[in-house]
UniProtKB/TrEMBL annotation:
Organism: Catenuloplanes nepalensis
GO MF term set: kinase activity
Keywords: ATP-binding, Kinase, Membrane, Nucleotide-binding, Phosphoprotein, Transferase, Transmembrane, Transmembrane helix, Two-component regulatory system
EC identifiers of the protein: 2.7.13.3
Residue stretches making up the Signal transduction histidine kinase subgroup 3 dimerisation and phosphoacceptor domain: 175-239
Keyword Disulfide bond tagged: no
Transmembrane segments: 6-26, 38-55, 61-89, 96-113, 125-143
Name of this protein: histidine kinase
UniProt-listed Pfam families: HisKA_3
Length: 375
């Protein structure tokens, strides 16, 4: 059985039990008053239960009117009548709830009046019944407001999750564009060298006709590849959020010292340790530069005034490793969405590396990455 079915069954059972209790109290407390035979009470209760199950969600106003009329004559239906009135207020709002309340009030004031005119007992009974109906209407309206609040909070949570997902996708997209621009510069340089060497082979003295023709084909293909690369990078750089520094040479390991000095001039405390050979690691060096740059930026934003330890090492056989560590902020830092770290993970994953970040047992935040050495 579904959750809704269990809820409806439970509410029906509680309403029936309340009605039977009310019938027992009425018969015990007022033995002189004439009541309908018990078989009529039970028959009316069964009919009310069937109406309640059938119309509770689809026709709550009609249900409240029908069960309310039956409940005035049969005390055993009082619980179902109360639940139906709460359902009108919670599902149809205040206007319909007070309309049903007015109908119930008219029935109570007209049917409970004695032949000799209104008495004190009559007014007391009518006041109690009307106050009970008002309490039921108020409870239904509060339930309606609670449901609306829950739906609003769920929608806000869904929108927040969707916004975070879009921010993550945007960060990945921007990082891939930046990687494409960097790869363009490297590939363009290598293809240009290929075209130059092919041109030299084409005009080399003593080359056979087949060699000259093959060198010419290689040179033409290299030029075509360069043109295709220019078109691709032109599309990327034509985007509204394109990097204005895309045409500049991409920094690498050689520029790490300047990057650290720039952070120190900005007021950061940076301890920089580098143990690297003189070989060029190729694009891995550019990725290390970006990782250190993002790590120092995050430290300035989220832990201002904290000392940052930067360690870079590795070699052709071991790969490149980089680690940045800083303690927690002494004063409150700026909030962030984590888009920079998402971009770093995208960058490292694309080159087959590993990256991890988080808090250590000593209370420091650590960003650590490893990249393969590929000259």
């Amino acid at each position: 059985m579904s959750r809704r079915g269990v809820y409806d069954l439970s509410m029906t059972a509680v309403a029936v039990v309340l009605g039977l209790v009310w019938l027992w109290v009425a018969r015990v407390s007022d033995g002189e008053e004439e009541f309908a035979p018990l078989r009529f009470e039970l028959t009316g209760l069964v009919v009310a239960v069937l109406l309640f199950v059938w119309l509770r969600r689809s026709r709550p106003v009609l249900l409240a009117l029908l069960v309310g009329v039956i409940g005035i004559a049969l005390p055993s239906v009082a619980g179902l009548a109360a639940a139906a009135l709460v359902g009108v207020a919670s599902r149809r709002g205040a206007r319909w709830a007070f309309l049903v309340f007015a109908v119930d009030a008219a029935l109570i004031l007209s049917l409970f009046q004695d032949e000799g005119g209104p008495t004190r007992e009559y007014w007391e009974t009518a006041a109690v019944l009307l106050m009970a109906d008002l309490v039921l209407v108020t409870a239904g309206l509060l339930l309606r407001s609670h449901r609306a609040l829950i739906r609003s909070l769920e929608e806000r949570a869904r929108q927040a999750e969707e916004g975070q997902r879009l921010r993550v996708e945007e960060a990945r997209h921007l990082e891939r564009e930046r990687l494409a621009r960097e790869m363009h510069d490297v590939l363009a340089h290598r293809i240009s060298l290929l075209a130059v060497h092919a041109g030299a082979l084409e005009v080399r003295r003593g080359a056979s006709e087949e060699e000259t023709r093959a060198a010419g084909v290689i040179r033409e293909c290299a030029y075509d590849a360069l043109e295709d690369l220019r078109e691709v990078i032109g599309v990327l750089r034509a985007a509204p959020d394109a990097d204005p520094d895309a045409d500049r040479p991409q920094p690498g390991l050689a520029e790490l010292g300047a990057l650290v000095e720039e952070s120190r001039r900005a007021g950061a405390w940076v301890d920089f340790t580098a143990g690297l050979p003189g070989d060029d690691p190729g694009r891995a060096g550019r990725h290390v530069y970006r990782i250190v740059q993002e790590g120092l930026t995050n430290a300035r934003k989220h832990a201002p005034g904290a000392r940052v330890r930067v360690t870079v090492g590795g070699g052709p056989g071991d790969g490149l490793s980089v680690e940045l560590t800083n303690p927690a902020a002494v004063s409150g830092g700026l909030p962030g969405a984590g888009a920079g770290l998402i971009g770093l993970r995208e960058r490292v994953d694309l080159v087959g590396g590993r990256i991890e970040h988080g808090w250590t047992e000593t209370g420091d935040f650590r960003l650590r990455a490893w990249l393969p050495w590929r000259p």
